[in-house]
Amino acid sequence: MTDKTGVSITKLIIALALFGLSQVNRASGANCCGGTKAAAEGAPGQSSANSVLNPSKFFGRASLGYKAAKQAPELCQKLFCYCGCDMTDSHSSLLDCFTCDHGADCQICQDEAIIGLHMQQEGKSLYKIQRAIDDAFSQQYPWDKPSAQLTKYRQSIKPDSKTDSAPDAPISQSAGTNSNRSSTTTDVQNSGAKAKEQ
Q1: Taking the domains of the chain in order of start, what are their residue ranges?
Q2: Rounded Cα gap, residues 84 and 74, in angstroms
Q3: 0.85 exceeded by pTM
Q4: N or C: less crowded end of the chain, CB within 10 Å?
């Protein structure tokens, strides 16, 4: 259902609900982990496999997501999560999704971690993994404007001159678009198919 301006009523309701939840979290100083943001953040770069919740607490795809984050915390620290948790839960990377229960209910978080781990195991470079994840998931980002975290992340993506060629097209700089899909989408599809087989 849309109103006269073409805005989806459902999207508007979801956005308002998420905004309301983020305001409650901010007012209480809590993040999705139930603790305070300051306690969860620790020192920059201190997140590790030890920060990731035990995968055995979860089942199915959620367990696989936590397992992937535990096996590749450095990779997850360098990936952006496109579910919108940067705004709702003050997450700065995909790894943050797995240091609390957030990743248990979010298929985007789970899929990004699982696909990222499979691509890493296949020997893909960080740059190619970032490009593939961005190409596959950026259109699911729920906000119209990129957050400060997303902007910082996009500025940090750099090819390794030894292993990566110049990009075919720039990573989409507008939130929620998929206009710059590249061959890295095939890498994600192949890695996703392998993940489902397991």
Answers
A1: 50-157+169-197
A2: 21
A3: no
A4: N
